[in-house]
Amino acid sequence: MKSNITKHTFSEREPLFPNPENLFCELTIHEYLNVMQKAKETVVAFLEENNKPFSGITPETLRKQFENIDLNDAPKNYADVFEEVRTLYTQHAVAFHHPKYVAHLNCPVVIPAVAAEMLISSINSSLDTWDQSTGGTLMEQKLIEWTCNEIGYGKNSDGIFTSGGSQSNLMGMLLARDHYSIKHFNHHIKKNGLPENAHRFRIFASEAAHFSIQKSASILGLGEQAVVKVKTDHSFKMNSILLEDAIQKEIENGNIPIAVVATAGTTDFGNIDPLTNISTIAKKYKMWFHVDAAYGCALLLTEKYRHLINGIEDADSVTVDYHKSFFQPVSSSGFLVKDRNYFTLITHYADYLNPKDHNENEIPNQVNKSIQTTRRFDALKLWFTLRIIGKKGLGSYIERIIKTAREAAFLLENDPHFEILNRSDISALVFRYSADPFRTFDLNGINTYIRAQLYRQGNALVAGTKLNGQFYLKFTILNPLTTIEDIQTILNTIKHYGNEYIDIN
């Protein structure tokens, strides 16, 4: 039967509420196109006008611009709001795409993923259940299958997209805790809460591991004291001999080793723990083996460096961050498990969302594997990227980054103005300025001054970190457009501010 309902424009029908033209629907296509054009122009201006990584504005100065803003003011038009956003945000936004941004683990993004972002935000699928996402569910599952294959997992593996590495690490520690409790004590934490001996559970990670491991232990009710930090070797990788010593010591003290976390790409040093050795120890003591590859997952993309993460296929669970090393916009991350049955430890059923009979009817609901309910379709960004650029294309970016990092390490090692702490497996270098061997000065003070001046001027941005109470500068090279000439320019700027500090003091 043909419908009698006739579509009308807003001018042809009585408005049911104020400003209906702001709703995204088939009646507002013209408005949508106009606004998206203004948004594109704003982004292009950001690219064209920001000729350095940062404007150099201070928190105090920028904060003053917010003092007279009242969000209850009368609504503005788009032109006014875009100008306001330019003043408050885009002209001061840190430009991760700039070749002289070598600070944190922020990558430039690829255009296919940016195109996907527009679809994701506009269509606004929720990837929790099939009836809200349909094809999106299957696309995400296909990308998870692809990632599992790249890791080296078998057909029984599975995974889920997450908001970031911290959430993925939390899920790894959650499954480790609950799996150990069921397997060794027949105690279901999901149903019955923590067992009496949970305060004796111990998780082992290197002293260079990400802070989210301790945070996860706290959230899971085990306390930060549950995380045993294992000393690293001279390359800042977990010492597997000291790992086993630490496990034995905890057992002697009456504690219960449940998991070990290996880091494939430490935040500060970009180095990879000995995965195969750690896996062997985890099996020996019947512990969960989790690999935090939020940074190092990029090595999956390149045949040249893939061997650096051999042993990752032995992990019970793996964290990957596509928005670090796959050049995806935030957020785009994943959590993978060797055995899909592990996800039953966190599965809950709701009759209004994912009733049990959906399993019988083979209806795929991603919420069964997630600690989130509503989730963005972030997987679409990676789908666009792989289909347009491909694994080999992304891999070439990573190979270029590693090459530049190794060239940068050579510059630092052969320049008497600097001390370098590490050679990186990937692309993070920790170093400091220490130019004058004939004069004693405060190395912490001079390097803190250098970083502050770099940030204040904004021509180049580097990170800072501490080791044994000493302050160091850090390069994190994640941009294939960053050249060794860019690195040399940054080093020259660092020398300039170092000499400036010496003159002042």
Can you describe this structure?
- By secondary structure, this protein is α/β, with parallel strands linked by helices.
- It folds into two domains: 182 residues, Aspartate Aminotransferase, domain 1 (Alpha-Beta Complex); 272 residues, Type I PLP-dependent aspartate aminotransferase-like (Major domain) (Aspartate Aminotransferase, domain 2, 3-Layer(aba) Sandwich).
- The protein is 41% helix and 13% strand.
- It contains 17 helices and twelve strands.
- The strands form two sheets. A seven-stranded mixed β-sheet has the order 2-8-7-6-5-3-4, sandwiched between helices. A five-stranded mixed β-sheet has the order 1-11-12-10-9.
- Strand 11 and strand 12 form a beta hairpin.
- Helix 4 packs antiparallel against helix 14.
- The longest helix is centred in the C-terminal third of the chain and has 24 residues.
- It is globular.
- The N terminus is likely disordered.
Note the topology.
Elements: H1 29-49, H2 59-64, H3 78-90, E1 101-102, H4 111-123, H5 130-133, H6 135-151, E2 158-162, H7 165-185, H8 189-192, E3 201-206, H9 212-219, E4 227-230, H10 240-252, E5 256-263, H11 275-284, E6 288-293, E7 317-321, H12 322-325, E8 333-337, H13 357-360, H14 379-388, H15 390-413, E9 418-420, E10 428-433, H16 443-457, E11 461-467, E12 470-476, H17 484-504
Parallel strand pairs: 1-11, 3-4, 3-5, 5-6, 6-7
Antiparallel strand pairs: 2-8, 7-8, 9-10, 10-12, 11-12
Helix pairs in contact: 1-3, 4-14, 6-14, 7-9, 16-17
Primary descriptors:
single chain, 505 residues, alpha/beta, Aspartate Aminotransferase, domain 1, Aspartate Aminotransferase, domain 2, 2 domains, 7-stranded mixed beta sheet, 5-stranded mixed beta sheet, 17 helices, globular, disordered N terminus
